[in-house]
């Protein structure tokens, strides 16, 4: 029985959490300033606010910081395989899918628009498809950061992997604020505050 207790106790790097906030993106300097990485950018803002650093988790391709019951995570996989990090991490933390908050880019919203919802279609977003597969459900919370559709003749992959234009700071701040409100006061409150802007 002592062995089982050791086996299922959270590792020091992941002490357990009530919420899991995930920023989606691609690792590496090549992708750092691209549209596909606005989720990473919003997560970084939250990490800065809490004065934390992201630490690796043994056996899971992710870096995590935990503060006051909230785990902030950045998968170290490429976008299309994000679920390989988030699924096992949520399980290890004991966080159910309905308490997973995902910050990600959204083609179907104008640039800079931030909207929240629970569940629904992934709209062709391969990072979300991977999350749904590994969490076993679509019923997690999405903080959708608009990047707009590409101009006619520009392929979607080229668009999402190209650098953002203009100053995204206000929109990244709004997305980070949206995640904070979800965790502190719930999804409905966050929608009321953010969608009114």
TrEMBL record:
EC number: 3.1.1.29
Organism domain of life: Bacteria
Signal peptide: none
GO MF term list: peptidyl-tRNA hydrolase activity; tRNA binding
Keywords: Cytoplasm, Hydrolase, RNA-binding, tRNA-binding
Gene Ontology BP terms: protein quality control for misfolded or incompletely synthesized proteins; rescue of stalled ribosome
Catalytic activity of the protein: an N-acyl-L-alpha-aminoacyl-tRNA + H2O = an N-acyl-L-amino acid + a tRNA + H(+)
Predominant subcellular localization, coarse grouping: cytoplasm
Site for Stabilizes the basic form of H active site to accept a proton, residues: 105
Residue sites binding tRNA per the record: 31, 78, 80, 126
Active site: 36
CDD domains reported for this sequence: PTH
Compartmental location: Cytoplasm
GO CC entries: cytoplasm
Record-stated family: Belongs to the PTH family.
Subunit structure: Monomer.
Function in brief: Catalyzes the release of premature peptidyl moieties from peptidyl-tRNA molecules trapped in stalled 50S ribosomal subunits, and thus maintains levels of free tRNAs and 50S ribosomes. Hydrolyzes ribosome-free peptidyl-tRNAs (with 1 or more amino acids incorporated), which drop off the ribosome during protein synthesis, or as a result of ribosome stalling.
Protein name: Peptidyl-tRNA hydrolase
Protein species of origin: Corynebacterium timonense
